[in-house]
Amino acid sequence: MHIKFYAPEWGNTLPFAEFCQNVKAAGYDGVEMALPLDPAEKKSLLGTLQQYGLELIGQYWQSVEPDLDAHCRSYETYLRHLIDARPVLVNCQTGKDFFTPEQNRQLFDLAARLSAETGVKISHETHWGKALFAAPVCRRFLTEHADIRLTLDISHWCTVHESLLDDQTEAVELAIARTDHIHSRVGHPEGPQVNDPRAPEWAATLKAHLAWWDRVVEQHRKAGTQLTITTEFGPAPYLPTLPYSREPVADQWAINVFMMNLLKARYA
Q1: Residue 179 CB-density burial (10 A; 0-12 exposed, 13-18 middle, 19+ buried)
Q2: Contact 172, 199 (CB under 8 A)
Q3: In a 3-state reduction of DSSP, which class is residue 241?
Q4: Is residue 121 classed as helix, strand or coil in its secondary structure?
Q5: Averaged pLDDT for residues 183-204
Q6: Nearest alpha carbon to residue 212 among 171, 252, 253
Q7: For residues 116 and 144, is the Cβ–Cβ distance under 8 A?
Q8: What is the pTM of this model?
Q9: How far apart are CA 49 and CA 46, in angstroms?
Q10: Phi, psi angle pair for 111, to nearest 5°
């Protein structure tokens, strides 16, 4: 099994072509990103990805409407917009934590219909503030609906549950079994992103995340299925900053490349 690695466009401040050149040189297979709705801008970005031989994972997060009908319309617009680019998959921050399970289920059903109609895989992210914001909530959705596949960003659950999830074993194992895509950010009980995963004080926390990811990798190896990983350490304020100056305490790009190389070596 070959694992493919993607760089997050989130936090990039360089011209897009220069960013893509760096992504390719670092050894990534592609980029995970949202796409602008403007057709010319979208075409330009996709052309640059193609120029550098980089694949696309589409990223959806935009809909904020509290009214479900309006939210569904926005959701479908953005998903079709990404699907039109024929990405490797679309990663969705689906729903809202304040929607009822029935309301969020309508969004999952809509995504399933779009995926079946177009043949583009859609995975739903375990993300705070969204439908799958907590381990037991996600467990109920997965138990009741066999068609939901996940982007596992377990860093969010560490913060939501203020733990390394020792008391959420069954929910975590079910999530791992349904994961097609990983966001390899390292969270901790007091926040969704450690300041630097290379620092020795985070060794135990990194080890916990590696153990979860190891089990995802193993199941895909046994099944002979494709696994994708985005090294999604984000910029400030996800990346902690110094007081007053607000200078980031570490380098986002360097951390993400470190994570990619760590995981490439681990799963070679």
Answers
A1: buried
A2: no
A3: strand
A4: coil
A5: 97
A6: 171
A7: no
A8: 0.97
A9: 5
A10: -60, -40
Distance CA(151)–CA(228), nearest Å, equals: 9
| pLDDT one-digit tens code per residue, 109-127 | 999 999 999 999 999 999 9
Residue 228 CB neighbour total at 10 angstroms: 23
Q: How many residues does the chain have?
A: 268
Q: What are the CA-CA distances from residue 254 to residues 22, 23, 231, 241 (Å)?
A: 11, 12, 11, 16
Q: How far apart are CA 252 and CA 235, in angstroms?
A: 6
67 by Cβ neighbours in 10 Å (0-12 / 13-18 / 19+) ranks as: exposed
pLDDT tens digits, 57-82: 999 999 999 999 999 999 999 999 99
Across residues 47-61, what is the average pLDDT?
Answer: 98
> In percent, how much of the chain has pLDDT > 90?
99
Q: Which residues, in sequence order, are bridge partners of residue 227?
A: 3
Rounded to 5 degrees, φ, ψ at 144 are -85, -20
β-pairing verdict for 227-230 and 179-183: parallel
Q: What is the C-alpha to C-alpha distance for residues 36 and 177, in angstroms, rounded to an integer?
A: 33
43 phi and psi angles, rounded to 5 deg: -60, -40
- Asked if residue 115 lies in contact with residue 79, where contact means CB atoms within 8 angstroms, the answer is no
